[in-house]
Amino acid sequence: MSIKENLQKIIKSIPESVTLVAVSKTKPISDLMEAYDAGQRIFGENKIQEMVSKYEEMPKDVQWHMIGHVQRNKVKYMAPFVSLIHGVDSLKLLKEINKQAKKNERVIDCLLQIKIAQEDSKFGMQAKEAFVLLQSEELKELKNICIKGVMGMATFTDNKNQIESEFKYLKSNFEQLRAHNCDNCDLQIISMGMSGDYPLAIECGSNMIRVGSSIFGARNY
Ligand SMILES: *Cc1c(COP(=O)(O)O)cnc(C)c1O
């Protein structure tokens, strides 16, 4: 099936309230343009340099989501245009994003990446740390960021029960975080679900899915 057909099939299968991020990492501009021509406007990349060069080549109405681990010294390259940063996992990183957002006279939307997988190779903060962060005095001073929600990645496993319980854990933490007041927060987004598990993620309350290989095909590297 073509990229366009893959996209249409996924869009038809998900509720309208769920946002589809087309994960285009490692894929050439021609593939992104095929998705763009089929109507897709939100693209996710996991490397800042690659996202910057694609941003320069693609039409300017594309919304770019950074879904990978973010190195602080590279935030400045994406600060002028990035529309949502999914992988925020420390106050230190938030401060740098705030600083670069301010330089660009904008507010950058962020998601807190919460550790939900049992594997310890995954980035993210413990749910408890997220609560502490949202209530911290230091966060209040960061006027150029807005925390829009949470992101999580389930364990890479065939065990559906385990994945389901990890997704439910993220959803329940999201609800609890939302109950706290916070000046520069507007908790609306739960980013969870990829090609292999997005239907389950949606059942568990996801409203933003990050889908790569089911749209663009397998990645070779
Ligand atoms: C690569 C990636 C995805 C997409 O993975 P697929 O299995 O190809 O859909 C989603 N989220 C993150 C954080 C990724 O790095």
Describe the structure.
This protein is of the alpha/beta class and 221 residues long. It has helices spanning 3-13, 29-37, 48-57, 75-78, 91-103, 127-135, 137-140, 160-178, 198-203, 213-216, and strands spanning 19-23, 42-45, 63-66, 84-88, 108-113, 145-151, 185-191, 208-211. It has an 8-stranded parallel beta sheet with strand order 7-6-5-4-3-2-1-8. The longest helix has 19 residues, at 160-178. The model has no long low-confidence stretch (mean pLDDT 95). Pyridoxal-5'-phosphate is lined by residues 23, 25, 46, 67-68, 153, 194-196, 210-214.
Compose a concise summary of this entry.
By secondary structure, this protein is of the alpha/beta class. It is 40% helix and 19% strand. Helix 2 links the parallel strand 1 and strand 2.
Show the helix and strand layout.
Elements: H1 3-13, E1 19-23, H2 29-37, E2 42-45, H3 48-57, E3 63-66, H4 75-78, E4 84-88, H5 91-103, E5 108-113, H6 127-135, H7 137-140, E6 145-151, H8 160-178, E7 185-191, H9 198-203, E8 208-211, H10 213-216
Parallel strand pairs: 1-2, 1-8, 2-3, 3-4, 4-5, 5-6, 6-7
This protein binds pyridoxal-5'-phosphate (PLP).
Pyridoxal-5'-phosphate is lined by residues 23, 25, 46, 67-68, 153, 194-196, 210-214.
* SS strand fraction: 15-25%
What order do the strands of the largest sheet run in, or round the barrel if closed? 7-6-5-4-3-2-1-8
SSE arrangement, N to C: HEHEHEHEHEHHEHEHEH
Given the structure, what is the number of helices?
10
Number of DSSP-assigned strands: 8
From the alpha-carbon coordinates, what is the Rg to the nearest angstrom? 17 Å
> How far is the first residue's CA from the last residue's CA?
21 Å
**Small ligands present:** pyridoxal-5'-phosphate
* Shape field: globular
Q: How can the largest sheet be summarized?
A: 8 strands, parallel
Mean pLDDT: 95
